[in-house]
Amino acid sequence: MAVLDIVIFPDPRLRQVSRPVEEIDDRIRELVADMQETMYVNEGAGLAAIQVGAPVRVFIADPVLAGGGREDPTLVYINPKIVRQEGEQDGDEGCLSFPGVFVPVGRPAKVTISATGLDGEVFEQEADGILARAFCHETEHLDGELLIDKVGRLKAQSIKRKLKRAATKG
Ligand code: NI
């Protein structure tokens, strides 16, 4: 396993639309293992493959979001699709590709996701609260949609300035 570099906004790779996974092979299993290590080292709650530069439809989430413990297996979603959603929730959202940025984002209160697991089986999972939020956020990454698209123009400009400053500081 390896800790990978996180792709930071405004890197254009984050705008790519990721492609579906055709086969769950050793490359995908290794990618997921590396993403897991990368997410925990960076204290993230979720991570999409494109955030480590791999444009494939895979994301992972911390089992703590589903009421589990860190020792539980990482939640893995391959070719995910949100199939139902209802209600609304408010809350602040962050993203490992936007270090230090937390912005309020409205999301559905409850969502159902359909995805393939590492075992190749298709499953559905219902979630509310922070896990529902993560499902929405990470699924959007796979279509090149980002946190900054959820805020107004002025807030977006200030986020861009902040991250550019951070990048030039090295
Ligand atoms: Ni993110």
If you had to describe this structure to a student in words, what would you say it looks like?
The chain has helices at 26-41, 129-141, 153-168; strands spanning 46-48, 58-61, 75-86, 92-93, 103-104, 110-116, 122-128. The chain is an alpha+beta fold. The protein has a single domain (12-169), classed as Alpha-Beta Complex (Peptide Deformylase). A five-stranded antiparallel beta sheet has the order 1-2-3-6-7. Strands 4-5 form a two-stranded antiparallel ribbon. A hairpin with a 5-residue loop joins strand 6 (110-116) and strand 7 (122-128). The mean pLDDT is 96. Nickel (II) ion binds next to helix 2.
SSE inventory with pairings:
Elements: H1 26-41, E1 46-48, E2 58-61, E3 75-86, E4 92-93, E5 103-104, E6 110-116, E7 122-128, H2 129-141, H3 153-168
Antiparallel strand pairs: 1-2, 2-3, 3-6, 4-5, 6-7
The structure holds nickel (II) ion.
Nickel (II) ion binds next to helix 2.
Labels describing this entry:
Peptide Deformylase; alpha+beta; single chain; 170 residues; binds nickel (II) ion; five-stranded antiparallel β-sheet
Please tell me the CATH architecture by its name.
Alpha-Beta Complex
What does the overall shape look like? globular
What's the alpha carbon Rg, rounded to whole Å?
A: 15 Å
Q: If you average the pLDDT, what whole number results?
A: 96
Share of residues in helices: 25-40%
- Low confidence ranges: none
Summarize the structure.
With 170 residues, the chain is an alpha+beta fold. It has one domain (12-169): Peptide Deformylase (Alpha-Beta Complex).
